[in-house]
Amino acid sequence: MKRIVVLGSTGSIGTQTLDVARRHADKLEVVALAAGTRAEELLAQAREFGAQAVADLVRLPEADIVVNALVGAAGLRASYETLRAGKVLALANKESLVVGGDLIMPLAAQVDAQRRAAGAVPAVGPAGALMPIDSEHGAIYQCLLGEDAREVARLWVTASGGPFRGRTRAELAAITPDQALAHPTWNMGAKISIDSSTLMNKGLEVIEAHHLFAMPYDRISVVVQPQSAIHSMVEYSDGSVKAHLGTTDMRIPIQFALSYPERWDAPVEPLDFTKLGSLEFAAPDTGTFRCLALARAAGERGGTLPCAMNAANEVAVAAFLAEESTYLGIAACVEAVMDAHDVQPVESLEQLEAVDAWARTKAREWIAAQ
Length: 370
Prior knowledge:
45% helix, five-stranded parallel sheet, alpha/beta, four-stranded mixed sheet
């Protein structure tokens, strides 16, 4: 029996995690829940699962795995404290690695070493202290199992292209929040849906992949795959490519993150290849969707720049959703804050929190001035 804490239990990933827990009640016990705003829903969940809903959940001695499904930079400290407590981190919070990958990955390596020393790891494969929940990173993780990392030539991160694939910048000028929230294949929360439409989500995933798999940026590529049937791919030095395919349902990567190194019964209907039809591939349009290029540039520069970039994006997306700024203003705001930032090496959570606060203020000033 694996005992789990779910942070962000009322959001999209959180509720689907609880779906997996219901299906595998003989293998998963939910011991604690946390949510930001939907108090009544949280209480109903807590009553159903008999879980605690209190602060400092990541240190609970009865918890084995913490599912971090919090949205935004607020999830970084939770990830940090989870690993400091020696727990397994099942990570859906992108910002933990985008903002604090330089702090999180060394901690994960320490927990991996502790787990190996305690004999709490699979006979072969990764030790599993940090399990990615993102479908793309979960796919890459599985494509790498049993392989020699030295023989990896390239990581291919797939993108649906979002609801505005093929549009020009002029056509994006008058986009409304409702239009941007209509993702073609995935059901996600508001902030992630907007990030998907701007391709910022893909930029964040490139930075995550760099940290998770210790891969240089020049060996991480994004390819648009509109059907979202291929969740990502790994290319090897001999020209072979492994692709991870499956139904477009987040319960599959969530379940693998919780079941590893085992595979449990499918939480959804498997993909029927006889009905899939064609698979399309295209290069992303980084000229129109500039957030992808901005995020990659922030990752390549490193230090505190991804933190500033991420904070500016959060503010710009919130302003767009509140109809206080334009759709194209998201990328413009992010670029302005990045240009104004004095990049430093990452040293501590407190430093990153200060950069985050600075960038949010700068972004709000930029939006107010438009």
